């Protein structure tokens, strides 16, 4: 059996778009029950409650999750409020404990998807399970690795599969915590339109303000749901405080979402896809320009310290020649590329001038 043969009827059990919400981490029974109650009270269509029990943290000595005791709290959330439950598993012990506690949906985190040994261990521990298993994209933009993780699960007869797009790490700080890099996720979607894809705007944005836009963008290009971090008291959260929202804000976000005719390769959908990719590239261009300007400012400082003139004709010549050559290679007009580079160069000179005369 191949990934392309999967039926994935599991998602039809849920209202569309399928929403998973809950805190980044389970912290206490009271925090879990209060968050669950408040999500329920909003009447938002959220059938699944998430909470991290074991937390993979970048540095040691941070809060690494409450461990198995948190599984009891997930059980209570299920019993008292009727949610299905979801948590992350990162090794065979986690799998055994989560299955024992009858967690409904398990996901493999971005830091685990990168490691084939870890994925294999999890897959073998889950062998033949009927539960739904969701695979987050690996932290690095590697489509084959993401698909490989799904193949390892299918290799152990795990057939209720889905993926979560949570963005990709970059060294450069950008407005996103993890760059969405839509191209990779959409390439996945076009290869495996049968595998449900959810968006995780919380880990893409790293803040509260961008969540609605990212979620809407994903629905526009046919994603089937979202996993969003929601906490009864986000500012005091023990992990990912800056990106979590209250249940009430979550409900508002959900009620503003416009559900498109997802999955149908019609005009709207194709248009949406192209627009998303264009925004992605525009964003990357702006980021690159801003990095270029910062370097240019550093050069301005050096020029000032060493009494060097700002405008260096031979430097400009190198740039024009390079632009001409690149225009040829990429099939764009020379005129256009020159215009773009002239504009960039002029802005650079302006910035360096400001440094020379100490104008801010
Ligand atoms: C999470 O969902 O809380 C989490 C740890 O996410 P990721 O694996 O995407 O970093
Ligand atoms: Mn988190």
Report the CATH C-level class of the largest domain.
Alpha Beta
The main sheet comes to: 8 strands, parallel, barrel
Number of strands: 8
The secondary-structure class comes to: alpha/beta
Count of domain modules: 2
Determine the strand fraction and express it as a percent band: 5-15%
Fraction in helix: 40-55%
- List bound small molecules: phosphoenolpyruvate, manganese (II) ion
SS element count, helices:
13
Distance between the termini: 63 Å
Mean pLDDT: 92
Low-confidence stretches: none
CATH topology of the largest domain: TIM Barrel
Summarize the helix and strand pattern as letters: EHEHEHEHHEHEHEHHEHHHH
Instruction: Please state how the strands of the largest beta sheet are arranged side by side.
Output: 1-2-3-4-5-6-7-8
Please tell me about this protein's structure.
The chain is an alpha/beta fold and 360 residues long. It folds into two domains: 3-260, TIM Barrel; 268-356, Up-down Bundle (Chorismate Mutase Domain, subunit A). It contains 13 helices and eight strands. The chain has helices at residues 29-42, 69-81, 92-100, 110-113, 116-125, 143-155, 182-191, 201-205, 211-220, 247-256, 267-305, 313-330, 334-356, and strands spanning 18-22, 48-50, 84-88, 105-108, 132-136, 161-165, 197-199, 225-229. It has an eight-stranded parallel β-barrel, surrounded by five helices. Helix 1 packs parallel to helix 2 (69-81), helix 5 (116-125) packs parallel to helix 6 and helix 11 (267-305) packs across helix 13. The chain is elongated and about 75 Å long. The termini are far apart. The model has no long low-confidence stretch (mean pLDDT 92). Bound molecules: phosphoenolpyruvate (PEP) and manganese (II) ion.
